[in-house]
Amino acid sequence: MGKYILRRVLLMIPIVLGVATLSFILMKLAPGDPAAAYLGDKATPETVARLHRAWGLDQPMIIQYFQFLGGLVVGDFGRSFLFQTTVLELLKLRMPATLMLMLVSLIFAVIISVPLSLWVAATKSSASAIVSRVFTATVQGMPAFFVGTLLILVLGVNTGLFPVGGYGSSLGEHLYSLVLPGISVALTICPVLIRSLTAALSDSMSAEYTNFAASKGLSRSKIVRNYAFRNAGITGISILGIQVGHLVGGALVVENVFAIPGVGSLLMEAVLARDYNVVQALTVIFGVLVVAVYLLTDIVYSIVDPRVRLGA
Fold first, then answer.
1. pTM attached to this predicted model
2. Cβ count near 90 (within 10 Å)
3. Which of 79, 87, 103, 137 is such that its CA lies 20 to 30 A from the CA of 20?
4. How far apart are CA 148 and CA 252, in angstroms?
5. Nearest to 284 by CA among 10, 17, 25
6. What pLDDT score does 30 carry?
7. What are residue 86's DSSP bridge partners?
8. What does the alpha-carbon distance between residue 230 and residue 218 come to, in Å, rounded to a whole number?
């Protein structure tokens, strides 16, 4: 088990290096000058050149690249051109709201997907199958920002049940304000999760051990809950791990719809201001986060099913 985890961790290194290199190259290829964007109407060739020297942008590209990589190794993401503070300080302020939104979204995704999948598998009726198919087909065609806007209009503006934006100042207010954003992001991963869980439950229900349980007189709903769902849960863990990329992307977009002060809004401001260090840092951090979740998913999967380690 230890060798398996070590091998998977070592495989992360080239992936993270690739993400860091790609983000550096893309930011350097992006049009516009961060110094000119920061100075605005006050920009002159002399003031722009002065900021270039102060920010290290006058250095050769290869030196900037290795300075960027060296900073990542020691956890130094540099300073924000726009906010005039370290990127690490900005992340400390903005990251908790984004992580909270991702966690709330994940919980809503499980709350919506698991009961619906169990209902379809337990009843095996045409009504439950139609409801499931209509729901997944409808939700899959709507992007997170569109769902968020609809929820704002229906449950925020018209009924006043939930706040239409902001993040609050206490834990209770944070959770209350994240209900609509969390549902918006959760619905982006629900279709895949529902279809995968339903298929896995159907396969489990046709296995010999479930047929044996049925021959003992157990009801279909009890067989689904007590036997089939345990095996289908492995599929659910894998799908949730794979969907983390969509979860991150959805959270970053929805933050701007609901005015949540997380890294999504920070990333938008940084891109518009060509704040290289902030954009590069966020790209690398979320790349590492996605890879780390994949790794964690593989480890959990290998614990549940040891045959995975043999095939790795």
1. 0.80
2. 23
3. 103
4. 13
5. 17
6. 79
7. 79
8. 16
Residue 304 is predicted with a pLDDT of 67
Q: Please name the amino acid found at residue 285.
A: I
Q: CA-to-CA distance for 299 and 28, rounded, in angstroms? A: 37
Q: Mean pLDDT, 10 residues at a time, over the chain (312 residues)?
A: 76 86 85 79 83 85 89 86 87 91 92 88 81 88 88 89 88 93 92 87 78 76 75 75 78 88 86 84 86 80 64 52
Distance of CA 115 to the CA centre of its chain: 23
Determine the Cα–Cα distance for residues 57 and 65; give it in Å rounded to an integer: 11
